[in-house]
Design brief:
The protein is 37% helix and 32% strand. It is of the alpha+beta class. The protein has 2 domains: 179 residues, no CATH class; 238 residues, Immunoglobulin-like (Sandwich). It has a 15-stranded mixed sheet that branches. A two-stranded antiparallel sheet has the order 1-19. The chain has a two-stranded antiparallel ribbon with strand order 10-11. A hairpin with a 2-residue loop joins β16 and β17. α5 packs antiparallel against α6.
Length: 450
């Protein structure tokens, strides 16, 4: 008596592998569809931003004192040029009050805000004045990334009302000799030139200022903590702020009707020296508060598609084991239809999650898919299945989709829970196949074997 490999099992396994490879094609289309939807969302955000106002980054105010310096050419001829010594305030107190609203483009929601700002501070006696400084031409610059949504500032210098005008000087904060700031927000790179308003002032030994204005924006509000001592208080009616950048709030209170946050930053912590024209990396100290609606549906759906091949493989493996163990043949076309049902799950998930919470959308899409497959198995594949068997099929799919949802909600623990889930699935398959005969018995004449 010898053993021969059961070729029928091998042929069926090969057919299943081919079907799994075919499933890669619709999975790619689904992933492209998710990317397209996310692109439409970003375009909607961009349209609102361009109309209402962009994110707001402020560095204000800065004292500028022109000075003359000599430059020699190759022929040793000296010419005088004008430079600008930039001084940070000694103390800077900023109070921000924002009100938010939601704007719509199609089904996409974009939060925007209106911020009322009051900025107070002082400049003490300057200890680092250039030899050829033109103190009489000193001016204050108020620097911001965009002037699109700003009101006319109410500016007082030593209790005297002054008027800001668009600056005619090349005097904005610099980053590696470029009029740019750079910072990271939510994994995306942003860069923009700072614009400046300026107002001529008369200097005393101690100088105080007060600046009030209203500005419209979207996305986030950020600040350069350029003063020796920076105290920033922000209050808002937005319930889901995101604090990021170089500094987090010293204290914060997030309530159902809004939030309050407070920062207290000194120049030692920020690394920004009081003489700002010698600083090229002030952008590293920028911190932001974001006013966004967390959009996790496209991100989570993309992650779910990445697990798609693995879950189709596990599903087909369960079906294959069920087929062999119960001697109920399943046609490759039926495997293909079950695979397409699992693909449709992702399109249901994305489309429903655009209107309701992702968790609810996942539950609806998973319940619909599990019901569809279970009914199809009962009515189209194995018509004489018992209630216990169909319940086992439904529970198996529920386990798979429950595991996928857990993996989507986890970050640091996703690998651990995923490994445990795969281990349990493998153990179940091994248990179900313990009595399967993988070989066919065959009588062989031992004299003819050699």
């Amino acid at each position: 008596m010898t053993k021969r490999i059961n070729k029928n099992i091998i042929y069926k396994a090969i057919a299943i592998v081919v079907v799994i490879l075919l499933m890669l094609i619709p999975l790619i289309f689904v992933q492209n569809m998710i990317e397209d939807r996310d692109t439409y969302r970003k375009e909607a955000v961009s349209k609102i931003t361009n109309s209402w106002g962009p994110n707001v980054i402020i560095a204000a105010p800065i004292l500028n004192i022109p000075y003359l310096y000599e430059v020699s050419d190759r022929e040793a001829q000296s010419t005088l040029r004008t430079g600008y010594a930039k001084y940070a305030p000694d103390n800077l107190n900023i109070d921000v009050k924002t009100t938010s609203q939601i704007r719509y483009i199609g089904i996409f929601q974009v939060p925007v805000f209106t911020a009322e700002m009051t900025i107070k501070g002082d400049f003490s006696e300057l200890a680092d004045v250039e030899a050829r400084s033109k103190i009489e031409d000193a001016f204050i610059s108020f620097e911001i990334n965009s002037l699109k949504g700003i009101s006319v500032p109410d500016f007082k210098w030593n209790d005297e009302t002054k008027i800001f005008e668009p600056s005619k000087y090349d005097n904005t904060l610099r980053h590696q000799n470029m009029n740019r700031y750079d910072y990271y927000y939510s994994g995306d790179y942003y860069g923009a030139a700072l614009s400046a308003l300026s107002s001529k002032v008369n200097l005393k030994d101690n100088n105080t200022f007060e600046l009030k204005f209203v500005i419209k924006g979207s996305g986030n509000i950020g600040f350069y903590p350029i003063a020796k001592n920076n105290k920033i208080h922000m209050s808002s009616d937005w319930q889901n702020p995101n604090f990021s950048g170089a500094f987090l709030p010293e204290t914060k209170e997030i309530r159902s009707d809004g939030f309050d946050a407070f920062w207290d930053i000194n120049y030692l912590a920020s690394g920004v020296t009081p003489r700002l024209d010698k600083v090229t990396d002030a952008y590293r100290s920028v911190f932001t508060t974001s006013f966004i609606i967390p959009v996790d549906n496209y991100k989570n759906a993309t992650r779910a598609v990445k697990y798609g091949v693995l879950f189709i493989m596990l599903t087909f493996m369960f079906c294959f084991v069920f087929e062999i163990a119960n001697k109920k043949p399943i046609h490759p076309i039926q495997y293909l239809l079950v695979g397409f049902a699992m693909i449709v799950f992702y399109t249901l998930l994305v489309s429903i999650s655009e209107f309701i919470n992702f968790g609810y959308a996942y539950f609806i899409a998973a319940a619909a898919t599990i019901s569809l497959i279970s009914v199809y198995v009962k009515m189209g594949i194995v018509k004489d299945m018992s209630k216990r068997q169909i319940a086992t099929v439904a529970l198996s799919f529920t386990f798979l989709y429950g595991l996928l949802y857990i993996l989507l909600q986890l970050q640091d623990m996703a690998l651990l829970y995923g490994s445990i889930g795969l281990f349990v699935a493998l153990a179940a398959i091994m248990y179900m196949t313990k009595n399967i005969t993988w070989y066919e018995d065959e009588d062989v004449d031992t004299d003819k074997r050699f």
